[in-house]
Structure formats: structure tokens, C-alpha cells
Amino acid sequence: MNPDASLITALVERWRPETSTFHLPCGEITITLEDVVTLSGLAIDGDAVVVDIPDEEWSAICLRLLGRVPYDLVGGVAVVRITWLRVEFSHLPDDASQEVIEQFARAYALSLIGGVLFPDRSGSTVHLQYLLLIEDWERAGGFAWGAAVLSYLYREMGRSTLHISHTGTSLAGDLGGWVALLQFWAWERFPHLAPRDSETRAPATEDAHPRGLRWLSASSRQYGDQLFQYKLWFDAMDTVVVSI
């Protein structure tokens, strides 16, 4: 899904890192852990998503857990391209062993982590530190992924707030973190900004679970000067949906 850059920019302009809230005329509001689990289904209880610095070389870790190493993974470089993951692990052999199946599963999970949950501002690479979190599947299932996603998004919005204040320019695509989660949240909290049912490629059902699924095929509403229009709306905002 393509993010609505104008909506995201208008929101982030109202983000205050010191309080981790959006400042609106009607008061302060923020994305909560409850919002994350409701919209995404990701766990908010469990172990913290923390990676210890490994003793192994990153190339050795990559070979052990993925079964292959990209040609440009040299020296101290600890990132792989998401396109490399998708190309190299696009087809699972019919006679794959259990070890190979797990390697393909890790590659898929790593591409989701780097491309959806914790993308950097480029959205094209993922750090191999996350590979250590999915080495053991049982342990991986015990992490509070939802809490980590929210924390990462908070940090990225704080950085982007500084970017806007220092440069005075729009974010465009220059925001890391799970931007779609922020967009789903905005559509739920401010329904008049959300796509109409007729503008979605699939019905936005009320009973979808997790609730973010109701927006998965939605297209952003189109206006003349998108950013200016969103700014006017937020400046005049006097009510929000307090529960989703």
C-alpha cells in the first residue's frame, strides 16, 4: 500500500517528541499500545526486542541462518538488500530439507521486518541484527513485537519532526517505521479523512481482525493541494474517535 505522504506529513508536523503526542486544537492524542494490537495483531506483552552484539562475523551469521551470503556483504557491513532476499528466496525447492525450509522462512520474516515493521528511511535494506531475533522460532514468538514497532515509529517521528523544523520541507517518503500503521490509525481516529467504501478495492468490514485489515486495499483520497487541505482540517479539528 502506498502511504499518503501529505497526511503523514501533516500529522508529523503536530508531533511533539517531548510528550510523544500529536498536538491538536482539541488536545493531545497519540498511538497507544492498545491501538497497535487492535490494528496489527502484534503482541505488546513479552520479552523486549533487544539484540546482543554477536561475537561472530555478520557473514558467518548470514551463512549459518540463511544458508547463503550476498556478494556485497563484506567487512563490517551488516545490512542486506531486501530485493536480494526476495530474489534469492523466491522459490522453495520441492525437496527442501527442514534446514532449508527454516532458512527460507527466516528470509521471508527478515524481509517483513526490514520492509514493513522496522524499515529505515530508504526502505531498501535490513540490518542483520534482526536475523538473530528469529534464529529460534519459539523465542521469536515471545517478543513484544508490537511494543517495539511503536517505539521505533515514535523515534522516527521525532527525527522527522526535527527534519521539518530545520528544513521547512515536506517529509515525502523520508519517514522510517511502519508508516501504514500510522495511516490506519489516522483513518480510524479521524473517519472523515478515511477513504470512502467506494474508493477501496475491497469492502472495509467492521469485524475485520486485526482491524487494520479493513484498510489494506484502501486508496488514499485525492484532493488538489493535499498537504494544505490536511493542515486546514487538523487546524480546525475539534473531535476525534477515542476508541477503535
UniProtKB/TrEMBL annotation:
GO-annotated biological processes: meristem maintenance
Protein name per its UniProtKB record: Aminotransferase-like plant mobile domain-containing protein
All residue ranges annotated as the Aminotransferase-like plant mobile domain in the record: 4-237
Domain of life of the source: Eukaryota
InterPro entries (UniProt xref): AminoTfrase-like_pln_mobile, MAIN-like
Protein's organism: Linum tenue
